[in-house]
UniProtKB/TrEMBL annotation:
Gene3D superfamilies: 1.10.1660.10. Residues 39-88 form the Helix-turn-helix domain. This is DNA binding domain-containing protein, excisionase family. It comes from the Bacteria. Transmembrane segments: none annotated. Pfam families: HTH_17. Residues 1-33 are annotated as: Disordered.
């Protein structure tokens, strides 16, 4: 019999800690993450007035943390998007 069950986190598994360091390209979906509001690349693109492909490039470059759904789609936490938006608004125009 397996000592861990789906309802109890495995203490040896770092992906269940819910810490910010666990969110990145392809990070596991934890119960803590699942309760947060997430945005699609199209939603994020509309906020920044860019194309969804640009948002995907930001994720690939590590500028915007994301998770990947079981179906292979990216999702972004609202707080990560807000942090990037605030950072972008603080930068001087180029």
């Amino acid at each position: 019999m397996d000592q861990t069950s789906p309802t109890q986190p495995n203490p040896d598994d770092a992906s269940t800690s819910g810490g910010d360091e666990q969110v990145g390209r392809g990070a596991a979906i934890t119960p803590e993450f699942a309760t947060e509001h997430t945005l699609t690349p199209g939603d994020v693109a509309a906020i920044f007035n860019v194309r969804p492909k640009t948002v995907s490039r930001w994720a690939d470059a590590g500028e915007l943390p994301c998770i990947t759904t079981p179906g292979g789609h990216r999702r972004f936490r609202q707080r990560d998007v807000a942090a990037l938006l605030n950072e972008a608004s603080e930068r001087p125009d180029r």
